[in-house]
Amino acid sequence: TTPLLMDFGSVGPLSRPLQSRQDVLEIAEIASQHTTISYRPPELFAGELRVGDMDLDYTKVDVWSCGCVLFAILFGASPSESEFHRKTGRLQIVDCTQLKVLQNIPQPP
Prior knowledge:
- The chain is built from 3 helices and 4 strands; from the N terminus they run E-H-E-H-E-E-H.
- The strands form 2 sheets. The protein has a two-stranded antiparallel sheet with strand order 1-2.
- Strand 3 and strand 4 (about 90-95) form a beta hairpin.
- About 35% of the residues lie in helices and about 10% in strands.
- The protein is of the alpha+beta class.
């Protein structure tokens, strides 16, 4: 079998200015349609982008998604779907939500 790397639906120009509320809403909507929530960078969620912020850097977005893929290869689930049990240190798979994505990345014991 041939490995297939995917889930880079947010790939776009190298950067994009956030000049209006319409720009912010459009970026968040496109990201929600073309990326899987558990691999989506926090800055692509509605509420995390703001008018007047620095330009959205798509190279950082791609690095985040690639990091999530590598984490999933190592642990069997994306960081947003993973928790490490406090006592045993075993990985637990959990539901992925926007709040889970915005939390800290789980650290293996």
